[in-house]
Amino acid sequence: MSMDATLMDAVLGTLLPGEGAWPSAGQLGLAAEVGAELGEDGAVLLAALPVGFPTLDAGAREEALRAVEVSRPAAFERLVAAAYTAYYVDARVRRVIEQETGYEDRPPQPLGYELEPFDEALLERQRARQPFWRRP
Amino acid sequence: MTTALRATVAIVGAGASGAAVAWRLASAGIDVLCLEQGGWMDQARSPARGHGWERALQSRFHPDPNIRRAKEDYPVAAQDTPIQPASFNGVGGGTLRWGAHFPRLRPSDFRVRSLDGVADDWPLSYEDLERWYDLNDEMTGVAGLAGDPGNPPRRAPRDPPLPLGAGGMRLAAGFDALGWHWWPSDAAILTRPRPGRAPCNNCGPCGVGCVRGARASNDNTYWPAAIAAGARLVTGARVTRLATAQAGRRIGAIEFVDAEGVARRVESDIVVLAANGMGTPRLLLASADAHHPRGLANGSGLVGRRLMHHPTAIVTGVFDERLDGHKGPFACALYSQEFYETDPARGCARGFQLQMLRGSGPVATALGGYMRRIGWGRGHHREFARQFARGATLTVTVEDLPEEGNRVELDATLRDAVGMPAPRLSYRLGENSRRLLDFGIARASEALRAAGARDILVNPLSRQAGFHFLGTARMGEDPARSVVGVDGLCHEVANLAIADGSVFVTSGAVNPTPTIQALALRMADAIVARLERRGG
Q1: Where are the domains of chain A?
Q2: Taking the CA of residue B455 as centre, how many other CA atoms within 13 Å lie in the half-sphere pointing to its CB?
Q3: Which end of chain B, N or C, is more open, meaning fewer C-beta atoms within 10 Å of its C-beta?
Q4: ipTM > 0.90 (yes/no)
């Protein structure tokens, strides 16, 4: 069963709609990647949607997807996981995250982050406590 | 059938316990061979070097073998448990995927029957094990700080502690305000260089491998030393059966399928199982024969029974300010053992540890990490922005009391890649554990509020927290009530020993790896003494 990319884009755009600086997941070209991740589940989920799903207004699309979420919960969870993963690793979305939150859009390595020295003065109150581990 | 391999001691599994045993024995000049079904991981090529590291955590580094489905994994029938399995196969085992939190059991953990009237005492004490804990710390490389009033003094040297980060600083202040205990974590992560290993640079996602070798995993601690001392390691080897000899009194051979799919055998004087608390009972049960119809070493009927996890609730505080919890090793910052011991006023026995988890990257934040995922649809982005980089988490990890109905069995139909029966987990959360979790959730929430959290999110039982399999071949002095003796040698099969978490009598409420490895080192020394007596 081949996947309808237009239909999948409409699904992705309903799961993660555009808002402010955040792009819609349906406009990032993620349909093939998400479809590949889902395999047969993707086709089954898309087949469960009403005819003309992409042409429905946002509220109706959301309502239709919530019905699928109830009727096929396991496959739907896989869809959400695949969609979130594809969306949040996309470079365009990472740039928005950087702009909106200050999160640096770079891999953790090789730079890492500063390893600040531990300030033992923080333990002043704890060090004042007598040992309280239980002796058998 | 090819010619059998031969060793004085053969080990099944190259994870935390198998690595420690291999090093200790090889260092004593003993001919050691280890079979490992996974391979070596090139951690220098960790996904942490690229933008796909979060995708890797959801796929090839996912903790659940049923989701990861790597070729070296075996499937697990896990329909009858609310806690899904987390395990990893390869040279280093679970330490390839772990967070490296490195606490020890407390002295009271070994005496819960005497102190609190529950479960059973261990046949050894904290003091009996202490020098092997110290040796294990030195081999591993531990960052931390001596002087914790909640634990016995630590003699082994430590690197300076990891930084707490912004979230840890707030939590420390919150614990102080409440007058509760906290202490920087003992972490199996270097903050100073060692030969071949660079210190941590605070990058965060330890679970995808450490490119610097700062995070200890047994492929960068025990295994290089073991191999230098002469230990042999065969990777891609799936052990399928232990074949007995001498009317079932000894193991005659280990049967395995090698990386090319060829059936092979190892013959050895002693066999050590180090396949974790799920894999070891699986192998014992799958090796049933006419002399051991209920499974090897299972005259007590306890092989696979008394399965203990560390049931874990997750409590996340959302703060107004950025905490940037993606910076720093995700599992190692600080812990509180304020509520570790029994308090009769709670209406349940034993206690729990609160362990701080730092924050997550974008994907894990959206998917909820150990929490529930952020909802989809309109409002998703607002909620993501509210949570991302603003969370700090406390895990509530409780002591799980042993119940014989909680167990590892063989599944009737599910098989692995070479046709061996898959393990089936049957587990019910006990009433004591549930009460501890509920009490702990309330305390964790209190601590987070004291730290300044605006909102509190609660997962009352983490589904993906089956990372510790304990108690499924317990130690004890009575062969009718235990599988192995105090040195890890089986009561019923003279040359069979168990080195992994299967032998735990009780679980404690902390991560078990340091205790597993200390027991393994102690057992190795007992084997050395036995072989020396025989040689003399």
Answers
A1: 5-106
A2: 10
A3: C
A4: yes
